[in-house]
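Sequence in, structure out.
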Amino acid sequence: MKISIIGTGIYGIALALDMVSNGHSVITWTESDKLYKRYLEKHDFKPITDAFIPDEIKVTTDIKEALENTDFIVLATSAKYVRSICKDMKKHYNTLTPICIASKGIENDTYSFLSDIVKYELKAKHISVISGPTFAIDLINNDPCALSCAVTSNKAFKFTDLALSNERVKLRENRDLYGTQVCGSIKNVVAIAAGMLDGLGFSESTRAFLITEAMHDIKELLEKLECNPKTIMSFAGIGDLILTCSSPKSRNYRYGLLLGKRKSKEEIEEYLKENTTEGYYTLLSIKGLTKNRKIKMPIINIIYDIAINHKDPDELVDFLINKA
């Protein structure tokens, strides 16, 4: 099977390596001439990752070449670029080709789910969304990992499963596209709060307190958005929440750590500039989404107040203790 991966961040690279190990032909698209040149010279994508990129993975800066005669497409870009990239893909895309969304987030300006953007811009008939407790480096290191796979059709799951599943990677199918995306997005926001607690010097017990409260709040949000509340118990839900909130491998967690340690505004801005921190982008989206739909989400409000309005991070602990 020929697979096109749109985006050469570390997660896209990790997925490409997994797919190649399954015997598929993979072509990845990057807009970066610098990364493309690096691949041609060294067969890696430093400084993104020092993982060796084998010859079986082809790299291109031409979106037409990336999509030509492809059987399956994976979107692995930052959420904020999904719409513009879909617009670029449109004239080279066959609406019957299954497309998998590996990006995490909700669009800032419209509060649209990424699956809706893909459906609207590309008229895609077969969409899947993968989300779950999988750090890219762990995929690259061939550690056993699992993902929720929300789909619009049997064909979408068949192609996603064929591309990714093996003795190290497990997919579990569901039909809750929105719920899977909510969980995959909001866990990055909660991870910021978990990092804050670490930066403030609190223990694993306090972090578990946060995760448990967040899980209940996310379940309520799923219900209010008419999603399946059981999705919180999936790989995309509690699985990813535990992982992302418990490890400094998470860029969102490390961002929260800086906030908790009360680092300077300049240092925090530099971190955000140098690191793709989806939780920061998603925080703005989730805040707007809940406000737009008149849904109360106090845990999001307190994280927003600390991260965006520069409130004292100690207010997070006060919120947890006094939360009704």
